[in-house]
Amino acid sequence: MNRKELEPDSSPQAAFGARLRGMREARGWKQEELGAHIGYSSTHVSAVETGRKMPTLRFARSADIALGLVGVLDTFERDWREIRHGALLEGFPEYVGHESRAAEIRLYEVGVVPGLLQTPEYASVLAAGAVKRGAITPEQASERVALVAERQAALVRNSPPLLFVVLDESCVRRSIGEPAVMAAQFDRLLAFAELPNTVFQIAPFAMGERRPFDLPVTVLTLADRSLMSYAESSQRGHLERESTGVLPMLTAYHQLQAEAHSQAASVAMIRDIRKGAL
Prior knowledge:
Elements: H1 12-26, H2 31-38, H3 42-49, H4 57-66, H5 76-84, H6 92-99, E1 104-109, H7 120-132, H8 138-154, E2 162-168, H9 170-173, H10 179-193, E3 198-203, E4 217-221, E5 227-232, E6 237-240, H11 243-259, H12 263-277
Parallel strand pairs: 1-2, 2-3
Antiparallel strand pairs: 1-4, 4-5, 5-6
Helix pairs in contact: 1-5, 2-3, 4-5, 7-8, 10-12
């Protein structure tokens, strides 16, 4: 049997394949045996190992289970997200994996409506703007829009998470795209506020110095009640798991909620802005 030499440094996909082969061989498994464990043919396993086939999320998660990587940091799912979402900020693909399983999500956004609440049209306008600036390619723009839909779909499950959302007033005052795009986005926010598992608030400009955050932040509560936070700068994202770093952020988030408009007042503001935008 011809054995193809792998070049893991050539691409993230090649690194995925080389790592898969290495862990398989360390257990003394043939490709047929790994395939039997994860529900794929040996031909499929071979194609992934040699970089001829792109791994799927299902493949990566199945490999994590078979190879004992569930619950650790360096998983095949994490590798998959780095391949799939290479144009995103460092740290964000890993965050998305935790977001899809969180029991509670608390997020605060500045400047734009966050991805979990974006309409496809709003997301497309933002991505197109990034292409025009030369920040990303058209292919990467399509990937960003697809990720918005993927993240939203992951939260529609039998036991959906509790979603607490506070938007800085700039998110709803800033016009993105044509008036019809903003009107549909406002409708999306109003529908979101009516869901039984959501709390929606706007932090008004009048909060001034009482606003505890200057950048977007998210705090996740996982199924085991552990906490993690995610925050972004313009260059990278940072995922924090240590309670000494997460608990102060959670406290600040509660302070933000106390100072922000109530859900009823926030909905009324959206309705007023929507009328003026038409």
